[in-house]
Specification:
By secondary structure, the protein is an all-alpha fold. The chain has one domain. Helices cover 52% and strands 0% of the residues. The protein is globular, with a radius of gyration of 14 Å. The mean pLDDT is 89.
């Protein structure tokens, strides 16, 4: 299973298949806010891919982030620095969660 599949699994989502009929919508924001309230440290999942992965109890080291970026087809120009990669990853992961049935506020999504 890929790291992105692990993210979807932790949120109660599955990758959409082309033939999938109706996939239930999951209120990801409420779910993540609920997890953040119970977490012993303050995490900013709304702005940080690392905090999002920590909150979901998933691997979040530099190699893990590079693996996730590669899995999601991150452009080479964004992989050139960890800051650019992480910014791209955060927006892309939230967009892909939304694409797979996650209810993400529009302000968080790529245009």
């Amino acid at each position: 299973m890929s790291l992105f599949d692990d993210i979807l699994d932790k949120l109660g989502l599955q990758r959409k298949a082309a033939s999938a009929a109706s996939i239930p919508v999951v209120d990801v924001e409420s779910k993540l806010n609920g997890l953040a309230e119970k977490y012993p440290m303050k995490l900013n999942w709304k702005e940080s891919i690392v905090d999002l992965l920590v909150l979901l109890d998933l691997p979040h080291g530099a190699d893990d982030l590079t693996q996730l970026a590669t899995e999601l087809n991150c452009p080479a120009s964004e992989l050139s620095s960890s800051f650019k990669r992480n910014m791209w990853l955060h927006k892309t992961v939230l967009q892909k969660i939304a694409d797979n049935g996650g209810n993400i506020p529009k302000g968080f999504l790529n245009k």
